[in-house]
Amino acid sequence: MLFSEARGRKVVSSSTASTVGKVSRLVIDPTTRAVAGVQLKKKTERGDMLRWSDITAFGADAVTVTDADRVGDGGDTVQALSGKAHRVLGKRVLTSTGDELGTVADVDFDATSGALIALLVDGGTEVEAARLVGVGSYAVVVRDGP
User: What distance, in Å, lies between the first and last C-alpha atoms of the chain?
Assistant: First the structure.
């Protein structure tokens, strides 16, 4: 599934069948190369984050959680990774040897596990997520090579 496909998807409580919110963006952890959390469009009194572990399913039509009380601040890890400096979309992609590959246009991830599959770079280039080294305020850094 692509980040662009996930954006705007409803988040539904499976215990009440009510809408909890809509996906605004996904928060990634470059160390684990996985989605760490989901930020919702509207902030509640408890926050606007869901940890990936609190999601029961990321389906074609909706994201489900057991209950609306799962929405909160996301915990320390998700909070640390949710800042502007850690966002990947629109950032330059640099290799570890300093070559620019382009700009991140989208990210492909496994909707079941949250594991990143690939960074989709403008111009159609696909960079395997296994090459991801880090995300900073200036760029996304990937290992050099195929």
Answer: 22
Rounded-to-integer distance, Cα 21 and Cα 13, Å: 10
Q: Give me the residue label for tokens 């989901």.
A: 38
* Residue 26: alpha-carbon gap to chain centroid: 3
Q: pTM value?
A: 0.91
CB 115 within 8 A of CB 129: yes
In tens, the pLDDT along 33-59 reads 999 999 999 877 778 999 999 999 999
> Quick count: other Cβ atoms within 10 Å of Cβ 136?
13
In this structure, the dihedral spanned by the alpha carbons of residues 27, 52, 29 and 124, taken in order and rounded to 10 degrees, is -60
Rounded to 5 degrees, what angle do the CA atoms 90, 120, 98 make? Answer: 70
> Both 21 and 47 in a single domain?
yes
Domain boundary among 83, 114, 130: 83
Judgement on whether residues 60 and 8 belong to the same structural domain of the protein: yes
